[in-house]
Amino acid sequence: MGDEPEISWRGAVATMPQALVSIVVAMRRVNHPHEACALLFGHVTRGGSGPVIEVKAVREIENLVRSPVAFEIDPVVQYQMMEEEKARDPPRSLVGILHTHPGNQFVSGTDVKYMKNAARLSTLLWLIAGDGKRGELDIGAYIVDGGKVREIPLVYT
Ligand SMILES: [Zn+2]
Q1: What is the mean pLDDT of residues 57-78?
Q2: Sheet with strand 13-16: strands edge to edge
Q3: Which residues surround ligand 1, an ion (CB under 5 A)?
Q4: Which backbone phi and psi does 85 adopt, to 5 degrees?
Q5: What percent of the chain is predicted at pLDDT more than 70?
Q6: Residue 139 Cα, ligand 1 centroid: separation in angstroms?
Q7: Which domains does the chain have, with CATH numbers?
């Protein structure tokens, strides 16, 4: 594996089962007006047009700072969840992180800073859940590609 070229995110898409959306709606409501956060577990596979980040599980994790504009998670709890997911058959890996906004799902300045730091810790996918245009939940999918934050399509399966 060591001789593989650096991964290209060209054409990347994220997928998530529609059934998981209700989990996100509930955690956003329960934590309002604070941000809620969750770890995303699944797999990265290769699709026809590029990498596919497949979210298979959304596991809520406490927002330690209880803030409407920021979140922070306990690395020990994160590690425990990662170990549990690794022990499953088949195993699932950490593919990203989700957090909610009390308002819209656009990337905030704080998010950009955090995303670029977290990219070094190989957090791939950022899902941000907020208000859609008609009051429904809207989830934006973002990756850091070539040092820049870029929105990618989120496909519900
Ligand atoms: Zn945010």
Answers
A1: 95
A2: 148-152, 137-145, 125-131, 93-104, 37-46, 51-61, 13-16, 154-156
A3: 108, 111
A4: -70, -30
A5: 92
A6: 12
A7: 13-156 (3.40.140.10)
